Amino acid sequence: MKYIxxxxxxxxxxxxxxQHAYSEDNLNAAKNSSVEKGAxxxxxxxxxxxxxxxxxxxxxxxxxxxxxxxxxxxxLNHFKSGxxxxxxxxxxxxxxxxxxxxxxxxxxxxxxSAPGNPINENLxxxxxxxxxxxxxxxxxxxxxxxxxxxxKGIYPNYPSIAGQSATYSSSQLMLFKRGxxxxxxxxxxxxxxxxxxxxxxxxxxxxxx
Length: 209
What we know:
single chain, mainly alpha, Cytochrome Bc1 Complex, Chain D, domain 2, disordered N terminus
C-alpha cells in the first residue's frame, strides 16, 4: 500500500512538472507566434518608412526597433482614434485590429535598437546637461527622470529616445512646444525650451547607444 501511495505521489509530481513545462512552452510559442505575426504586418504596412528591422529609412521617421511595446501600442491606438494627428499614420493605423497592434508592437520591441549616432561636439555638452539635470531656473526638469539616464526610457510607458534620429526628435519637441502633439507633461516641458535647447537635446539623445 505504501508502495502504491509513493508511486502515485511520484506520478503526480512528474505530471505537475510536465504541466508546468508545457505551460512555459505554450507561453514561449505564443510569444514567438505574436512576433511572427507582427513581422508580417511590419513587412506589409510599416517597412517602407520604418525599415524591415525597425530602423527608419529616412531621419524624419522614427526608429521603432527596441522600443517598448506598451508605448508603441499606445501611439498606434492614438493614431487609430485620431487622438494623435498625422495623416500618414492615421491612415496606416485605421485598419489595424487590437491584435494587430499588439503583435506588431511586440515585433518591434524584439528587434535590436539603433546604435548611437556620431557625437555633435558643438551641441553635446549643452544637450547632456539639460538631459541629465534640466534647468530649474527656467522650469525645465531633467529628461532623464522619465527617459532614464541612458535614454532607454522607464518601461513601459516612457519611450526610449536613445539613438533616435535628431531630425525626428527635434520635430516632435517642436510639435509639443507648439501644442500640436498632445501630451500634458511634454507640452509643459517643451514650452520652456528654446530652439537651441531642442537642437542640443535632439543631438545628444541621438548619440546615446
